[in-house]
Design a protein that fits this description.
heterotrimer; A mainly alpha (588); B alpha+beta (224); C mainly alpha (234); B: 224 residues; alpha+beta; five-stranded mixed beta sheet; 3 helices; elongated; C: 234 residues; mainly alpha; Four Helix Bundle (Hemerythrin (Met), subunit A); two-stranded antiparallel ribbon; 7 helices; binds protoporphyrin IX containing FE; binds copper (II) ion
């Protein structure tokens, strides 16, 4: 056996003679799969957004015909006026699409796929074909879910949480095939996640480049690793639950049917046992990528790398024992409620650590406000609001009032939109050059950022006020309640801001699409970053490296006194660096 | 429209609002520290050519501090909250002299059963009124909450009370109204297409009014 | 640049570089996959436990509804197939990739793997037989079919009416998904048998497929022992 020492990290584009179909459609290349996920989940993000716009129309202007609503069939919106049964379909599908088909695949499907091999120095995932199966399974799941709108009785109507027995009983919910498709779709989504996760985990454990020790891994990789573990263990629980739900609907089982001894709360326990780890799946990768970007934008090593890793791990551990905080008012034993309250409050601590460490990173930095950095700083600023509002809800007596009100809606949008989505805007801009070889437009990126930031807050901050007034969530027409009538102007304001927020996303879409063709040609390392991916040309070639690079240091050596520049890539060998004990094996 | 919590209409509304305020102060401080800090750093450390950032990997001391303070605060908050929680929703929190009312939720109405003049549920003089909850002021009321079909949630904002009604379960929830008047009861859990209009009126009467209403309603003229 | 030749021990292949665990990828992948399978069955079995303990009445005695002896035999079959799986693994690890040798008599990989496949297939067959039988007698996922034998048992109070619905729901879901897993195992193993074992692709230096499918097989067997105990015995 000859081994090849990694003396060269310069990649040569592999000679690539695969057919178009193998290269771009049925590709097993992790980067192409990531890009496929990107296009598909941006499409579902758009779908989710369109659904939200319709909901906001109804809430802002209840009973008025929606502009353009005339194209909807009479079963949804006769004369453009939304029906209550259509409204709850919108509620359900908006949540479902955003959580399962937009944010989750954007964070995990796109960035776990794209970044893990590039950042740890691997030629590809451990199991490229399983990886491809993971993508197709997710796409299939999304299409099945979308089909819900086109079957008799329309889309499911029980909320993204699908509480039984409403979800289990077509006669009570009014949705039949749609709800079944919801279940089937999530089984495929679960499969996709499990296949993806086992790939990410195996790849990270076993396929790291020489010198890439555990504690030299970028935080993005750490968080994707822990996320994969969460996904691996949480999604099968969801699969089990939705299969039981499907059986209740189709073959007459009684899992959630109290009449025959089943338990309504069993669904909630299963769903949230999955669901809380799921919300961390929806934020940890964002935290990881934000850490990378903030360190880069501050030109400073990440503050407290080890405690950042520790916090991710702690969140992931604690995330398994807090699910009951979604069920304080469900009739669950109140003593259990007490313990879930305490564990939930404790889980806020690692979030606090991370926040302060991000600030510590910026402290005495030399800040560069490129578009990714702007979005990353906004992530911190917004995530804090979401994390802090979580504390109100964790305190059970206060939750008694604000549970199932717009306060919750505000909270989850601060963490998911203010948090995850801002992080994603940053991440997309940041790694776009490595994906497509072009840079997105910087000025338009900034315009998009500022407008989004402003309108986003105008939409979601006032929702705290609505929640404090006792405004229930998922209601079709708030003016039914006298005590909510005075808040109608606020609802209208929120709706108008929401339309604006939606509209300015066109800037992002155009920037994204037009830059593919007309973007500036990207240099190899546009952000002057340290990660291994920047040792590759843009776009990164198939197979990544001829010979994987050797890693000499951690990923955050910015402004190191060892070199005159303010960055020091992981793959750059200084005369004082020793070769790692392991040497790489060539080929893949 | 106001920017604060609604009228305090029950004995524990004040406690809950107080806790809310306490959390608002705690989180407010954290909020200001973080947001102002971010803003300050953004301005102060904005990039200038020819300068290099301060090269450091962290400070254990600082990290211990900002781990310990939130941890202690959170545990304290948990203990305080739990005190109220046990009082409001704990297993044995229902006052023994509470006035019993049964509410059966179904798509999409609240069937309220009153104990009748004898003050006992499950006797012949019980009577049912749809979508109207009448309670005496200043006296604890315990609601026996059940559901016919799916999960609903009993929510009276002015009382700060919320409790899901779960089919197959019989859940007790209590409160004591403090301010006579007419309020609203809403359903807070998505229960189907009529969820948004699953609404009832809440009448908080003085004891005399309540007795009078009871007498009249028991005779069958239950229209408030 | 040297490529792995036949003499490279693929069971301990050269590490790409930093290797977290001294385990080749396929095996690690299977471990990780099984972790998720554990969670899947935990969801099903956990629900069963919660439903059974929270049930509105006593649980039906298994022997009254199910045919325990037949399933006991089936359990024995599955355990035997785990034994043959171990034999297959041991054989290939020793380089014995033949079918049968007579002097001295010894079974090789091809023999033991086939035995395992047959054992698994028989298990699924017996389970299918069991299901048809139960359904015929009126025991359904929704409970007792009206006018059936089981419905009579319910009417006479031998089987509690309040829980027979849950009994059917949990029984068919848990055993059904287990059967589905065995079926997948049989199919995968047949695939490996035909495309690899029969074509002589396994050797002392590379029998990863055998080891990996073996892990799965033992896992499924273990799940069955748990299920058999909680569903058929208690
Ligand atoms: C500081 C950490 C956090 C705390 C203390 C916290 C606490 C809570 C609590 C107590 C609830 C239940 C409220 C109720 O229904 O009454 C809740 C709901 C929710 N949280 Fe958080 N949370 C935190 C962070 C997050 C993060 C990071 C995410 C996602 C990325 C998230 C997403 C959600 C979602 C989606 C819901 C609503 C689920 C629903 O009912 O539809 N939370 N949170
Ligand atoms: Cu949660
Ligand atoms: Cu409702």
């Amino acid at each position: 056996m000859t081994t090849v020492a990694a003396t060269s990290h310069v990649a040569h584009a592999h000679h690539d003679d695969r057919s178009f179909l193998r290269k771009y459609i049925f590709s097993t290349d992790h980067k192409i799969i990531g890009i496929q996920f990107l296009f598909v989940s941006l499409f579902f993000l758009l779908v989710g957004g369109l659904l939200a716009m319709q909901m906001r129309w109804q809430l802002g202007f209840p009973g008025k015909p929606m502009p353009g609503g005339g194209i909807l069939p009479d079963t949804m919106a006769p004369g453009g006026v939304l029906l209550p049964e259509y409204y709850i379909q919108l509620v359900t599908m908006h949540g479902t699409f955003m959580v399962f088909f937009a944010i989750m695949p954007l964070l995990v499907g796109v960035y776990a796929n794209f970044l893990i091999p590039l950042k740890i120095g691997a030629h590809d995932m451990a199991f490229p074909r399983i990886n491809m199966a993971s993508f197709w399974s997710a796409l299939l799941a999304g299409l099945i879910m979308l089909a819900g709108f086109f079957v008799p009785d329309g889309a499911p109507r029980a909320g993204w949480t699908s509480y039984a027995p409403l979800s289990a009983r077509p006669d009570l919910s009014g949705a039949s095939y749609g709800q079944m498709l919801w279940c089937v779709s999530l089984v495929f989504l679960g499969l996709s996640s499990i296949l993806g996760s086992l790939n990410y985990i195996t790849t990270i454990i076993n396929n790291r480049a020489p010198g890439m020790t555990w504690f030299r891994m970028p935080l993005s990789v750490w968080s994707l690793f822990i996320t994969a573990i969460l996904g691996l263990l949480a999604l099968p629980v969801l699969s089990g639950a939705v299969i039981m739900l499907l059986f209740d609907q189709t073959i007459g089982t009684h899992f959630f049917d109290p009449v025959a001894g089943g338990q309504a709360l069993l669904w909630q326990h299963l769903f949230w046992f999955f669901g809380h780890p799921e919300v961390y799946i929806l934020i940890l990768p964002a935290m990881g990528m934000v850490s990378d970007i903030i360190s880069n934008g501050s030109r400073k090593p990440i503050f407290g790398y080890h405690s950042m890793v520790f916090a991710i791990v702690a969140i992931a551990f604690l995330g398994w024992i807090v699910w009951g905080h979604h069920m304080f008012m469900s009739g669950m034993n109140p003593t259990l409620g007490s313990s879930f309250m305490v564990s939930t409050l404790i889980i806020a601590v690692p979030s606090a650590i991370k926040t302060f460490n991000w600030m510590g990173t910026m402290w005495r930095g030399n800040l560069r406000f490129h578009v990714p950095m702007l979005n990353a700083v906004a992530f911190v600023a917004m995530f804090v609001i979401g994390g802090l509002s979580g504390i109100y809800m964790a305190a059970t007596p206060v939750d008694m009032f604000i549970h199932d009100t717009y306060f919750i809606v505000a909270h989850l949008h601060y963490v998911l939109f203010g948090g995850s989505l801002f992080a994603l805007f940053g991440a997309i801009t940041y790694w776009y050059p490595k994906m497509f070889g072009k840079l997105m437009s910087e000025p338009w990126g900034k315009v998009h950022f500022w407008l989004t930031f402003v309108f986003y807050n105008l939409v979601f901050f006032p929702m705290h006020t609505l929640g404090m007034a006792g405004h229930m969530r998922r209601i079709y027409d708030p003016t039914q309640y006298d005590f909510l009538k005075p808040y109608q102007p606020l609802n209208e304001f929120i709706s108008i801001s929401a339309f604006a927020l939606f509209a300015v996303q066109a800037i992002f879409a155009l920037n994204f699409i037009l830059s593919l063709k007309w973007g500036k040609k990207a240099p190899q390392n546009p952000w002057e970053d340290n990660g291994l991916e920047w040792s590759l040309p843009a776009p990164a070639p198939h197979g990544n490296w001829e010979t994987v690079p050797t890693v000499y240091r951690g990923p955050y050596e910015f402004s190191s006194p060892q070199v005159p520049e303010d960055y020091l890539p992981q793959y750059r060998k200084l005369p004082t660096d020793r070769e790692p004990a392991r040497t790489p094996v060539a080929g893949h | 429209m106001h920017w604060w919590l609604p009228l305090k209409g029950s004995t524990f509304a004040g406690e809950i609002d107080g806790l809310f305020l306490a959390i608002l102060i705690i989180t407010g401080i954290a909020f200001v520290i973080v947001e102002a800090g971010l803003l300050w750093f953004v301005v102060k450390y904005r990039g200038r050519p020819g300068r290099k950032a301060y090269y450091t990997h962290g400070s254990t001391r600082a990290e211990v501090i900002w781990t310990a303070i939130p941890a202690v605060t959170m545990v304290a908050l948990g203990l305080i909250s739990n005190h109220y929680w046990v009082k409001i929703k704990g297993r044995n929190s229902v006052p023994p002299n509470a006035y019993p009312i049964a509410i059966h939720a179904k798509q999409f109405e609240w069937q309220v059963t009153y104990p009748g003049p004898d003050g006992q549920l499950g006797t012949a003089d019980d009577f049912e009124v749809r979508n109207q909850l009448h309670v005496p002021v200043g006296r604890p009321v315990v609601v026996h909450l059940t559901s016919e079909d799916v999960i609903h949630s009993f929510f009276v904002p002015v009382f700060r009370v919320k409790q899901d009604a779960v089919p197959g379960m019989n859940i007790n929830v209590w409160f004591q109204a403090t301010v006579p008047g007419t309020y609203e009861l809403g359903c807070a859990e998505l229960c189907g297409l009529g969820h948004y209009r699953m609404r009832a009126q809440v009448f908080v009467h003085t004891q005399e009014e309540f007795d009078a209403w009871m007498k009249q309603a028991a005779k069958g003229g239950a229209t408030s | 640049m040297a490529h792995a030749t036949a003499t490279v021990d693929m069971m301990h292949p050269p590490a790409p570089a930093e290797r977290g665990l001294d385990v080749y990828n396929n095996k690690l992948g299977m471990w990780v996959f099984l972790a998720s399978e554990v969670m899947f069955f935990t969801a099903l079995i956990g629900s069963y436990i919660i439903l059974r303990f929270g049930a509105p009445g006593p649980w039906a005695p298994p022997a009254k509804v199910l045919n325990v002896p037949v399933t006991a035999f089936n359990t024995f079959l599955l355990i035997c197939s785990s034994v043959t799986m171990v034999k297959a693994y041991a054989a290939v690890a020793d380089g014995e990739t033949h079918f049968l040798r007579f002097r001295p008599f010894s079974g090789g990989l091809k023999f033991w793997m086939l035995a395992t496949i047959i054992g698994g297939a028989m298990f699924v067959g017996v389970q299918a037989y069991e299901y048809t039988h139960l359904v015929h007698h009126g025991f359904l996922p929704s409970g007792a079919r009206e006018g059936s034998e089981v419905a009579e048992l319910v009417a006479s109070g031998v089987v509690p009416a309040a829980t027979i619905g849950l009994y059917g729901s949990t029984f068919y879901t848990m055993t059904g998904f287990h059967g589905f897993h065995v079926t997948c195992g049989v199919i995968s193993m047949t695939y490996l048998y035909v495309t690899k074992a029969l074509r002589g692709k396994y050797s002392r230096h590379d029998y990863r497929g055998v080891e990996v499918i073996g892990l799965y097989w033992h896992f499924v067997d273990l799940v069955w022992i748990i299920l058999f105990t909680i569903v058929y015995l208690i």
